[in-house]
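Sample pair:
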Amino acid sequence: MRFLTLAVASAMALGCAGAAMAGNDSGNAYQFTFTSIDGKPMPMSEFKGKTVLVVNTASQCGFTPQYSALEAVYKKYKDKGLVVVGVPSNDFGGQEPGSNAEIKKFCEGNYDVDFPLTTKYDVKGDTAHPFYKWAATTGGDAAVPKWNFHKLLIGPNGELITEFPTKTKPDAPDVTKAIESSLANKG
């Protein structure tokens, strides 16, 4: 009976924490689902075979102008298989206090953002979205955002390729080289 109770408790915990998990994608980024800024499911599995740059964003940060470079990188490489995913977060300095509608209006109106945005999520600590917990476990301390506009590069097979700190601009040579390498090696 005790085993059954533990099994049920474990299944319930997995159901709550990993509601976004999908079959054979355990162990990679495709097991997770975000909610889009418009309130629709945004499973990472939609991006299978693509290179994905996941960036935690904020509208009132000194690094907010990186939205322009993110959009430029997205436009440059999207037809080759790149997806940029912006994950608004209020984790750092309270610099994303707005509602999802306000965030969307800000991004589209000020930076002509066309890449996918999620709803606002925590990206660090115990309340972090499961994707960010996975990235921390997979990539170690370097994969944990220390501030807004931290970048995680996910390969076509859902693996964490590398990460880039906040100060590294989305169009920096290291970032574009990693993107181009991933796009050239899509499996």
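The two ends are 46 Å apart (CA to CA).
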